[in-house]
Amino acid sequence: MPHRSNIGLADVADIETLTTAFWQAARGKRLRRDMQSFAADLDGELARLREDILAGQVPEGRWTSFQIFDPKLRQILAPCFRDRVLHHALMLHIGPVLERALVDDTFACRPGKGSLAAVLRAQHHVRRFPWFVKSDMRAYFASIDHAALRGVLQRRFKNPGLLALCNRILERTPGPDGRGLPIGALTSQFFANTYLDALDRYLLETLGVRAMVRYMDDVVWWCDSRETAKATLDAARAFVAQERGLEVKPSALIGRSTQGLPFLGFRVLPGTLRLSLRRRRRYTAARAKWEAEFIAGRIDARALQTGYASALGITAHAEATAWRTAEMARRPTIDA
Description:
The chain is of the alpha+beta class and 336 residues long. The chain has helices at residues 9-12, 15-26, 33-40, 42-54, 81-100, 115-126, 140-143, 146-156, 160-171, 186-195, 197-206, 226-244, 277-295, 301-313, 321-329; strands at residues 63-69, 73-79, 131-135, 211-215, 218-223, 253-256, 261-263, 266-268, 273-275.
C-alpha cells in the first residue's frame, strides 16, 4: 500500500485493484442488470474503466433513488454499478488511510467495530462516569459541506489527480451545489465518518471530556458534573457550527449514567441493555414484512421462519425475554 501522500490515479486504476473492487461491488448485486452487463465483458469493462480513471473521465454520476424506513423515512441514492466499482477501487487505497486517522472510539464503518461494539463501549463508560451528553446532527449527510470536506482530504492526501477524482465524485452528487453526500455510496460512508473526526479530537483533547463514543453522527461523551456536561455541549455546538457547518439537534440530552443512556436502539444501563421503542418498532416492521410475503404466497413456511429469525436479530443482546416470548406467541392472521 503506497504512503498516503503518494496514492495516485495509477494505484486506483491498477487492474488488480479494479478486479478486487468489482467483486466487492458485486456482493448482493448479482441479479441486477447493470452488474450482469458489466460482468459479461469484465475484462473489457475493467480496461475501459482503467483508461477513464487515468484520463480523469470518471465518475459517470448516474444514480438510482429509492426510499427506506430505518426507522424513519430515508432517501437513498445508489450509484450505477460502474461507479460502484470505481468507489470500491478508490477506497481500497484511501480507505485505510482515513480509517487509521480516526480515534479509537469511533465505531461506524470500521473493521472489527460496528454498532454493537459502540453500545458495549458506551456501557463500559456508563459504569465509570456519572454524567453523559448524547447528541446527533440535524440532517447530517445532507449538511456536509464539500469545501470543508475537501480541506480534510487535502490534509490526508497530496496527489493532485487523486484529489481531483474525489472532487469530481462530490461534484457529480445529486442535490444542492457544494453540500451533501448521498446515503448509499461507499465513498459517503468513509467521507462522512472522517468529516466529524475533528469533533472527536476537540472533545478529547481540547475539552478534556472523560470519555466519548461516536457512531457516525451519533455522539455521546461523559463528564464528572452536570455543569461540565452543559459547558461541553455548548462548546461542541459552537465548534461543529463554525468548523463543519453543522447543527446539533435541539434534542441533545444530558443525563445521569445510572438512569440509562438511549443509544443506537438500546437503553444502556450499567448492568443491562434494554430495547428502545425505536428498535421494537424496527422488529415489528421487519416481522410484518415477512408475514405479508407469507400471506401473499410469495414465500413458504421455512422462509417465514428464516425471516422471523432475522427480525429477532434486531432485538439480540437486549434483556427482553418476556417481550420476545409474547411476540413469538403471536401468529400472522391468514384470510381463509
